[in-house]
Specification:
With 396 residues, this protein is an alpha/beta fold. It folds into two domains: 5-205 and 380-395, Rossmann fold (3-Layer(aba) Sandwich); 221-377, 3-Layer(aba) Sandwich (Rossmann fold). 43% of the residues lie in helices and 15% in strands. Helix 2 (62-76) packs antiparallel against helix 3. The chain is globular.
């Protein structure tokens, strides 16, 4: 049997597309299949989605156990991090039996694969990981530090030690880690795992529909933030900066907060930022393009985030971003003429200064937004997939 590549993704193929990192797996599998070196693509569940290449769910029962788990979570109020961990362990257990003898490479976008990676090594496979997030211990340390600073002590997926231990047992079997942008590269270098780190720069951009930039008619400068807010999103640093801006008495400036917050963050915000003015709380945002179109500037203050899509969606709408250097997306936005301003994490003063700079220099702000859109329009995800496929083909 000829040597081939098995691609696995913890996410699923839904009605007509891949969800999350399954989209990367789908695109890469398409390219590998063209080259005749794809064994198959293993995903969590397949729904009604079919592929032009060999693909299969990790188990014939995965759709059913995922349904049951989600029902139990809703009925019993099981914490999301425990549900996630259970799904990851089940996926790993089933996935180990999907490995095929004679396969040269196992390519995964999910690092929580202790049993699968171990069996792959026993079968003589090269284990290649392209992680969807920065290194897990790196994230844990940032969250732990922030918990101590804020007094928030909620457990989530990144601070659940049982899950972190599973990761640490899994990563020891990985031969190559592909780093697609600086925050993944830095975090894995600091971790000093035995795996070789390979830099292949690229991004998973959102699936965006064509838009027409709408001219704004009012004299107010609109600043935005949108995310499901957990501690890692860094919203509290933006709000601290906004509190300082409030003290300047500027009237024609407005902050739009999109998305809901988990309970610990909601309580923290209510306690520390209740008196802020010129803030509109939108709650859940179902129409992201419409939200972006009302803005002049987006702020992405995340403490660590592999590749947030919101600054890319903003760029697509000619909106520049203030984004931290721990967000992978900034690498795409600063290409050519920079379409964003990159700041350190946990720096409310830097956020304040950049917001005020954009407010006082609207022509520069608009031009930066046009640069951001150009960087999005000239980026090719297909080229990224071809480079990944070139690397894997060279190892088969």
């Amino acid at each position: 049997m000829s040597k081939k590549v098995q691609v696995i993704s913890f996410q699923s193929l839904t009605g007509n597309s891949g969800a999350g990192m399954a989209r990367l797996g789908h695109m890469l599998s398409t390219e590998l299949h063209k080259r005749g070196i794809l064994q198959d693509f293993i995903i969590h569940s397949k729904g009604k989605f079919d592929t032009a290449f060999p693909s299969q769910p990790v188990s014939a029962f995965s759709r059913y156990y995922l349904f049951v788990i989600n029902k139990l979570v809703a009925i019993l109020s099981v914490p999301a991090y425990k549900s996630r961990y259970l799904q990851e362990v089940l996926f790993d257990w089933f996935c180990q039996w999907r490995l095929k003898k004679g396969t040269a490479i196992l390519f995964s976008t999910n690092p929580f694969m202790q049993r699968t990676f171990r069996r792959a090594k026993k079968l003589g496979m090269l284990v290649v990981l392209l992680p969807g997030t920065p290194e897990e211990n790196y994230i844990f340390n940032i969250v732990d530090e922030e918990n101590k600073k804020t007094g928030i002590h909620a457990t989530d997926a990144y601070t659940y030690k049982k899950r972190l231990n599973y990761y640490n047992k899994s990563i020891q079997y990985v031969d190559k880690v592909i780093a697609p942008h600086p925050v993944v590269l830095t975090s894995y270098k600091e971790a000093k795992h035995k795996a070789e780190i390979v830099t292949i720069v690229g991004h998973m951009t959102p699936d965006l529909k064509p838009v027409t930039t709408v001219a704004k008619n009012d004299a107010t400068f609109h600043v935005g933030y949108v995310a499901h807010t957990v501690l890692l999103k860094g919203l509290h640093y933006l709000l601290a900066a906004w509190k300082d801006i409030n003290e300047l008495g500027i009237q024609n400036i407005m902050l739009h907060i999109g998305g809901n917050a988990d309970e610990p963050m909601k309580n923290y915000i209510d306690k520390h930022f209740k008196g802020l003015v010129n803030v509109k709380w939108h709650g859940h945002v179902s129409d992201i393009p419409a939200f972006m179109q009302q803005l002049d500037l987006l702020v992405v203050p995340s403490l660590v985030d592999a590749g947030p899509s919101t600054p890319l969606e903003a760029a697509y709408n000619s909106i520049p971003s203030i984004i931290t250097d721990h967000c992978g997306s900034y690498e795409l936005l600063i290409r050519n003429n920079p379409g964003c301003w990159v700041i350190p994490i946990r720096d409310k003063d830097a956020i304040k200064e950049r917001i005020l700079f954009a407010y006082n220099n609207t022509d520069i702000c608009k031009q930066t937004g046009e640069y951001a859109r150009y960087n999005m329009q000239t980026y090719s995800m297909e080229s990224f997939m071809q480079e990944l496929a070139d690397y894997l083909e060279s190892k088969v």
